[in-house]
Amino acid sequence: MGSGVESTRRERFAWCLFDFANSAFPTIAITAFGAPYFEAVLVGDRGLALGGLRLSGTSAWAIAVALSMAIVVVTSPVMGAIADRGRKRSLLALYVAVCAIATAALGFVPPGSGLLAIGIFVIANVAFEGAYVFYNAFLTELVPSDRVGRLSGYGWALGYVGGLAALFVVRPLLPSDYHAAEAARGAQVFFVVAGWYALFSLPTLIVLRDRAAPAPITRALARDAIAQVRSTIARARAHRTIAIFLVAYLLYTDALDTTIHFTGIYARRVLGFTPDDNVRLFLVLNVIAAPGAVVLGVLADRAGAKRAIQVALVIWCAVIVLAVRAYDAASFWPAAILAAIAIGATQSASRAMMARLAPPGRTGEFMGFLALSGRASAIVGPLIYGAASSAFADPADPGRGDRIALVIIGLLFPLAMLVLRRVEEPRRSE
Predict the structure, then answer these.
(1) Dihedral of CA 39/389/318/241: which sign?
(2) Non-local CB neighbours of 342 within 8 Å, separated by 6+ positions
(3) Predicted TM-score of the model (pTM)
(4) CA-CA distance, 235 to 238, in Å (whole number)?
(5) Given this model, what pLDDT does residue 3 score?
(6) What pLDDT digit, counting tens, does each position of 155-165 carry?
(7) Of 202, 166, 171, 8, which is closest to residue 93 (Cα–Cα)?
(8) Of the candidates 229, 342, 357, the residue with the CA atom closest to the CA atom of residue 291
(9) How far is CA 178 from CA 37, 41, 42, 385, in A?
């Protein structure tokens, strides 16, 4: 056992249930509904005036995502180090509460309030992404290192079940079109997502407990955590394998997260999807994604997390090719199905890989570095997508800019595969 303390089946199930709880946010508040709603309604066709610039809805969304990820990058390692000092559960509860409140607040934002929408979304997304640091840090306290891939996969699979259920709940609330006058009634969706996250997180927050005795929250605690992070960075040569893995993770997570954050916008602008089209798409994809996460989670335990990630990255390369060649909803389905198989598997295997690479007793700190690497990439990817989409836009071919932007982002997958080849995965315990 990573911590030397046995866990119960109840604790392991409660840990997995958090993925069920938080899945409504990325599935609905970002991908299936939030991103296109933000672009078309909260910013609108007139765009957003920022200084002497006028940003399109896509560019404004890119800035909101990049800014939130920048904050996560700065805070995650230190917060992870603090969490290792017996504060994982309390910090997880705090971040869940902030995310739920901010998500609900998005429901009160009127159409055309671009800057206000950016500010509130940044708070919600920082809290959502930050919560993963504390949640992931529990992993090695619950199962031995040779079973982290499986438990991680179970969590992602249950998350897709949660996303599926949440999509069914919000579907009656969706407007018929993003540009219709009645589109603002879709704001009710954010209330459902906030309530879902808060309600289904309760079992996790009640059942899980820190193995380490909680340290008092003082300035000294923060100073010690910062010193620990600085020491880890200074001793980077001692963690060479982790450093190489984080570079690979940065590259493929940049491509993956950017694809996720812009799928709804891509489907609306390039393929003409309506809100209900997007929800129907993600209903099917969540059904496919759950077994995909479990299968590659088992592969991560049997053949190694590195092999599971490599398989997922090959699938992602195929996704990009098929998505760029799609010109209607029917031809987009093969790409979407393959993405559903790969998305949870990629993230689950990455989580398992870091759990195996992290030094004993410092999982929270290194999960913070995992978040730092992935979220640092997510600063750049959305900005590249937004800039490329605008630079290559063509009124005669509305989808041209988005297709070229997707190709540019997709090149990061094969580059990540080259870096990952240099990572040596530790032998699994028998």
Answers:
(1) negative
(2) 292, 312, 315, 316, 319
(3) 0.78
(4) 6
(5) 44
(6) 877 888 898 89
(7) 202
(8) 342
(9) 6, 7, 10, 21
